[in-house]
Structure formats: structure tokens, C-alpha cells
Fold this protein.
Amino acid sequence: MTDEFIDDTERSARIAEYKRAIESIALVAHDPVPHELLAQLLEQPTALVEQWCDELAGVYRQENHGFRLVRVAGGIRYQTADDLAPYVERFLLHDQRARLSGAALETLAIVAYKQPISRAQVAAIRGVDPDGVLRTLQARGYIDEVGRDDGPGQAMLFGTTDSFLEKLGLESVDDLPAIAEFIPGPDVVEALEHGLRVTPEIDITTAGPQQDD
């Protein structure tokens, strides 16, 4: 059934669905979504899609939401309201400033010195399940999956990233300080903690208490 043969109620329902689809696509997109692409996905004229995007943007502004639907680089995307930037900045800086726990620093040192290394090998060295800590380190961008073991099960192997080297000011992992024993001592942990801590340029003391990972 084409749009010419549907009543106003059904037409309104379809438009509401198209708008919800636009919201969903814009929400998951990493880059601005061109109107032409939205038109192809919805199988609707580009002019109508642009109109619906403008209507959505108007609703967000009228209802004073904390986000906006804006036109950027030939497409649309969500971004936070300008007047809420200080709160967003506090949140982002608080995440950067959060210190790694001792367990995370120890695990990071193990990966750095023994890479490529599997979860099971990290667990054997530390004596505890490292899954949570490995996820934290991976989320921070300090380690990543670098391959699979050739042995049975083909376990995932982890190694440090360029971001890790950049934070510590190293050209390669070969520049890591030598340690007599593999489990890092206080000096190594302190060096890691100092190199990986981000010091924000603005005061965020009102952002609330910090928590260790």
C-alpha cells in the first residue's frame, strides 16, 4: 500500500516510526549520518527526511533536553547541549584522572614484560582471576588483543598498545626498565602509576569523590 492510499492516522503512525528510526540510527552512528543515506534506509524522499530531522531537533530544543540533533558536515548527529559542557567536561576528566588500582598496575606490568600473554598465564602469575582487571586495562586503551596462542584452545593473547608507550614516554617495550624478579616491585608500580596518571588542566574538585578501578 502506497502513501497515497493510507488515511491520516496511519500516515502519522508511519511518520512517527520513521522519526524513531532516525533517532536510532543517529544514536549508534560514530559519524554524522547524511540525509541521503537516511532517505535510502527509510525508502523516503530526502526532502521529507530533512524535514523530520528538523522537527526532531525542534522538539529536543523545545523540551530543553540535555542533547541536540544537529547538522554537521553534511549530516546529522547527536551532541550535548552547549550550556551543559562544564558537566560533561567534569565527567570526562574524572574518568581520565581515575587512578589504576594496585592490581591493575601489577597486571599491566605482567602484560608489558611477558607479552604476548594469555589470561590463564596472567592468572598463573598473579594467583587470581584477571578478567575484570584485563577488561579495565583494555577499556583504558593500555592493552589489546594481539593474537591467539598456537596451542590447544587457541587462547587470546594480550599485549600493550601504542597508547601505553605514549603515556610512559617510551619508544618500544624494549625501553622498559629491567627488573630482577618478574612480579613488579614498588618502584616499578610507582613508575607505571606516575606515567599513566592524567593531570587535568582545570579544577574538577566539585566532580565528586574518585574511586579506584
Strands lie at 33-34, 67-72, 75-80, 117-118, 143-148, 156-160. The radius of gyration is 25 Å. Residues 200-213 have pLDDT under 50 and may be disordered. DSSP finds nine helices and six strands in the chain.
